[in-house]
Amino acid sequence: MMPMNNMQMVFGDEQGMLLDSARAFCRDRSTMPAVRALLPSAQGFDPQVWQQMAALGWLGVAVAEDFGGSGLGISSAVPLVECMGKHLLTTPFIDTTLVARVLQQAAGSDLSQRYLPDIVGGQIASLALLESEDWGDPAIGVTATPAKSGLQLSGAKTQVAYAEVAELFLVSVMYQGVARLLVVPTAAVPSAAVSRQTCIDETRRCARVDFSGVSVGMENLLPGDADSTLREVMLLGALLYAAEAAGSAAACMDLTAEYLKTRHQFGRPIGSYQALKHPMVEVLVAMENARSFVYHAASLVNEATPDRDAESACRMAKAQASEALKFAGDRAVQFHGGMGFTYECDAQLYIRRAQWSQQVFGDAYHHRKRLASLLLDS
């Protein structure tokens, strides 16, 4: 499958420089012992690493210079996320970047000036969009009602990334019968309203947040109908998680290939047997295809709302990358033999990530179902 009209794929100089610096940074800051040391931690990431990312300007790559960013665009976040995925460096970067994108697109609102400089400086922001575990659920369960103090909220959101450490929530709400987006500072949310949820990918943190009784000012309501903005967030989120999955698939492949070269059976490396060689070639092809789809999509997204070609490319990237990581993780566990099923084997980190990455922002079936109408309807 390929986009019908635009076949161009460009890897810019800025993306190349970001990729080089990100490779070195992630390799040094996110070794496997460091990843494992963070698994039982409350935050799930190293705050010092997060501040170093902010100091490098990563949190501002998609933010305009007027707000303290570098103005490189959302596509420049793709090589950063790919490198993070390859080294299992999990931080609130994707959610924070998506929130920054929405705030920057909020024309006619002073919310950009109020919040974007702080986000570029290291403030953690999170998306609160889900009422259930299914990204395809169209319901918006949080309602905003006019009150003397501004807006009174009722309802809850689930799977809110890094809710326990976030300083800002971007919440989808129903306001006077219309879907809207609302900025909610975490200071307005009681700590007891945040309940941690268990993620199958133990490198991540998420929670259920009950917004019932929370009050915010009317000025925190983003202008315009939220439907088009939510569509854009879903597509860009799918692209960024596809980039992360492609990076993780590459690392999983390297882990398995190294084991196949060092484990001996019947006097020879097990990687010399064709029954193991061929699946590893399939992993390589799937991973490289995913990277091609990801960077093609990155070349099509820009500051405007994604058009038909960009939407097709984002959906293709997510479908391919999700399945590439799932296949790589499955082969990693199988090829490590009995050890591969143990918690001590690093292969389980990748298959857990694969299970998460399949679902977040839609699985392969979800995106291919929508691709059918995009590519086949006249």
Task: Give structural notes.
The strands form three sheets. Strands 1, 2, 3, 5, 6 and 9 form a six-stranded mixed beta sheet that branches. The protein has eleven helices and eleven strands. β5 (168-175) and β6 form a beta hairpin. The chain is 48% helix and 13% strand. α5 (93-105) runs antiparallel to α6, α7 (227-262) packs parallel to α9 (308-335) and α7 packs antiparallel against α10. The protein has three domains: 13-123, Butyryl-Coa Dehydrogenase, subunit A, domain 1; 127-220, Butyryl-CoA Dehydrogenase, subunit A, domain 2 (Beta Barrel); 227-376, Butyryl-CoA Dehydrogenase, subunit A, domain 3, CATH 1.20.140. The protein is of the alpha+beta class and 378 residues long. The radius of gyration is 21 Å and the shape is globular.
How would you concisely characterize the structure shown here?
This protein has helices spanning 13-29, 32-38, 47-55, 77-86, 93-105, 111-120, 227-262, 274-300, 308-335, 347-359, 364-376, and strands spanning 125-128, 143-147, 150-154, 156-161, 168-175, 178-185, 194-197, 206-210, 215-216, 264-265, 268-269.
List the helices and strands and how they pair.
Elements: H1 13-29, H2 32-38, H3 47-55, H4 77-86, H5 93-105, H6 111-120, E1 125-128, E2 143-147, E3 150-154, E4 156-161, E5 168-175, E6 178-185, E7 194-197, E8 206-210, E9 215-216, H7 227-262, E10 264-265, E11 268-269, H8 274-300, H9 308-335, H10 347-359, H11 364-376
Parallel strand pairs: 1-5, 2-5
Antiparallel strand pairs: 2-3, 3-9, 4-8, 5-6, 7-8, 10-11
